[in-house]
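fwd from M.: "can u put these together and see what the complex looks like"

so here's what she sent:
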Amino acid sequence: MSAVGLPAARRTTLGFERLRLLLRSPAFLVGLGIILFWVSCALFGRLLVDPLADDILNSLAPPSAEHWFGTDELGRDMFARVIAGSRDILVVAPLATLLGIALGTALGLVMGFFPGWVDDVLSRIVEAVLALPLLILALLALTALGASNATVVAAIGLSFMPIVARTVRAAVMTERNLDYVAAARLRGESALHLMGFEILPNILPPIVVELTVRLGYAIFTVATLSFLGVGLQPPSPDWGLAISENYALIGGGYWWTVLFDALAIASLVIAVNLVADGLAEVAE
Amino acid sequence: MLGLLLRRLPYAAVTLFILSLLVFAGGQLLPGDVGRAVLGPLADPRAVAALNHQLGADRPALVQYGEWIGRFVRGDMSQSFAFRAPVAPFVGAALWNSLKLGGVAFTLVVPLGILGGIVAALNRGRLLDRAIVLVGLSATVVPEFVSGIVLILVFGIGLKLFPISATPPPGAGAAVQLYYLVLPAIPLVFIVFGYIARMARAGTVEALDSDYARTAVLKGLPRRDVVMRHVLRNALLPTITVVASQTGYLVGGLVVIETLFHYQGIGSLIYTAARGHDFPMLEAGIMTVGVIYVLSTLAADMLLAALNPRIRAGGRA
Amino acid sequence: MKQFKSIDALRRGLGAVENDLVDEILAGRLDRRSFLRHGSVMGLSLSTLGGLAGAVGLVAPRRAMAQGKPGDTIRVAIATPAGAVDPVTVADDGGLTMLIQAGEFLCVTQADLTLKPVLATSWSHNDDSSVWTFKLRPGVKFISGGTLKADDVIATIDRLADPANASNALSAFKGILSKGNARKVDDLTVEFHLDAPYGAFPYVVSSDNYNCIILPASYKGDYEKNWDGTGPFKLDKFTPKVGASFVRNPDYWGDKALPDRTEFTYFDALQPRILALQGGQVDLIDQLPVIGGQALLNDPNVTIIREKSTAHQQVHMRCDAGPFADKRVRRAMALTLDRQKLVAGLLRGYGEIGNDTPFATVYPSAAPTIAQRKQDIAEAKQLLEAAGVGKGFKVNLTTETYLEIPQYAVLLQNFARAVGIDIELKIESQDAYYGKAVFGQSDWLDSTMGITDYGHRGVPNVFLRAPLLSDGSWNAAHFKNKDYDALVDQFGRTSDVGGQRDLAAKIETLLLDETPVLFGYFFDYLVPTRKGLAGIPPIPNRLFLDRAGFV
């Protein structure tokens, strides 16, 4: 199933081998480069540009030498906002992913470890929630919770929970009857210990793969929720939010107020998936 | 086949029941109440209380749920709180719109996806293969509103080839309606193409590597025949599962496209109902999406069983 | 001399209050518009008023209003009504636009804030304005067949004033008119016995209070079944969430509608409405906010009807707790605003600056002598220093996603930064912001600082009362001031404009000193139409289409 159980030296060589493979994949490298670019924008962007400074009497100016990407309705520099717009989504999406993975893993461990009525009941509930599209689920959660960075993390985390739980449950099922679990059971270890210290380390690889896949979805979902007005809130220069604020303008030819944000989102999600795909391929 | 169906139906019913309970419980968390939502923030509290009483929204939650589910199992979707009229026609109209848009997207993406997957598999390892995989992967992860905006900018406003609203003028014929749905359907094609192409490619690769395909080639059958006869069916099997898994999304999850292209589908019906505390409308919308999900999953399983005798023999998939 | 004689002749027929109005004019304190407006509250017929105005030399400026041709079909894009179209409960723009197509009011608030008699022909009041008598128009037919009588008016008003009825008009009647206090004098005369004297009562039953369309006494609460009323149009077809169409009512009591047909299409969002007008699928849009509406403001094929209004966004600051408990801090915040820039930038000039009181200059009762507050960072800093917060402070501003409010919030945040006030924005959906809309369960009413939208009103009374009175149910600022309450009470009872202005001067001075609420600007309503469409009266948020037609 994984490198667990191999001699340490062998594992390191395997690691190096994989890294070498990764570094030979142009798709992976391009993706990594784009991510690093946006991460550095998120970290240092606001030191260089001010996305909030308004110049209201110079609103909706087209791209020029002074404003490379033009200005929005409040006369704010679109270039500054696109650069600084990477920050919130790069904080919220990974946090939401981690929350979803943590909750889903916990639920999946319980479901897989206690077959019988516990698993039956929880499985039915998970199945019921999965009948709804992810976006509808997150949208309903945010309508109930109200929109803020914290609630977006919570809503997406909760929405990820059932699907992660299903993956983890399947992995636990195969591990549960293996010898090392039986041995630990004989030693009289508690259920909590068995789940947390025996089974969990052995199902980490599929969880890590799930994590990278979920991260892509999380970015997708955060951007979408912001576009619908229930995600990140003004005055955040978030890309999805900017498109939502400005798309009524496109009929008037103010294309620069949405185009660069759209391209920024596209570049980030594609990059994350190139990297995730590269990792998954090497892991196989 | 019938046995499989009979075994699965109770599970489906339980799933839907739990879903309705969850939505109802979640609905209790929504801020404000329906009387306030209808009458607005400036209305007198006495008027708000009166409206909540008229609608029965001031009764205990479980009583309301009991009455609702009692009617629902008898096929009555109750009255909308906001519109004070039966819910069914609203859901029916929204569902019909969603099915039209989803249908156009499906018709475009299924053949394209399968074709893309097979072509990629036949050119395995070559540039064309990589290109298809990469494009599919990228298109799948770009949010609909991003591709939608770019499409609107280029084809709607720049080239003026397509209308940028999905709603045709009243009384439009089928052809005109189709014309209005092309642009909104393309972002959906992008999203789903990658999944289908990937599964079709995997299925084809597996089939090409299988013993029977090799034997057939060794027997001197033309490659085209081998592909048509053996590979295609095997490529289709995993694709069906993916298509089924995307049905719920393609019918109920299109809030973004519906918002962007001004279209009244089931997704925006659910969202509007949730914001307006219109509980009967919300439940009806959710149950509709749930039923579609359950039915499409069921249909996919039946189809797989029909195409693949091993599953039929093996019982629960 | 001759002029004065003719005035005297007219005066003889008038009461004390009306004569006071004439004095105001002669003293040069009233312009023509204000004069007409005040006369109309008092039920002077327009011909009498016109005569008076002519006699004192206030001749109406002749406005060449283009007249469209009859027989057109007018296609309109409006916001989707949020729920059932029901005159008792409707609270949203889409719904009210539907109500006023077939429905009519006793009187209608005009663009210049005067009242035009519609189903009432005239009205008058007793000495202290506590009893108002309305004469009804004879021979008005309901679409369902009956003739308009006093009983219909009484039933309509009672229905709306009944606390058991889920009436959206209940808060407008609160403290003014209760159920059972509208009484029949004869078949065409109704008397309203008010809870307390109220000088602006006709506005309470005018189109200002849009739920007050007059329906037959027999109305059963099923408006969507029959769309009854007395108006120039009658319903042709209605599909919930999709649209409605109307045709000319051949039995209308007044000038028959010019258009053959009107067709309304519902849209949830602004952008598709804009695109529908640009694409030629509709002829006009109900309302265009400046933010997000730039595409049409510059479009050469579009004419913008500009409707002066008193609509505004109130920025409340909690007077009872937190950093704004000290009025010097509230004044300092007010002094950071560059109001000219707000109007020029945020509203593209479509509005007027506010002076931190509800008295927009279009109100004839607004005191003309109060100085306009201007941006003054130095003074703001001094005030903060004096209040002991010279280093500045952090504060949360909570508000709703509606019109230009989020953008206004961002500008306020940037203005306040100049004096060290660090505003953190919390922008929510409208549901979340208003919550249960009662104290303790509403971000609107509980937040330290917030921005709330208020629509157009023909008189400032509503703005002066619920949001600012000590026991006001919309008093988000938690402003409690006995002097203010007494002044507003007196203002409500006063029906002569001179007295109103004296009181307004005191109220404005008090509000400028206390500054519980920032009134940064009053914005115009903009109605974009296809070029060549004429005959739509510039009345904010009331789309009357009976004179519409293409030139």
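replying to her w this: The CA atoms of residues 71 and 78 of chain A lie 5 Å apart.
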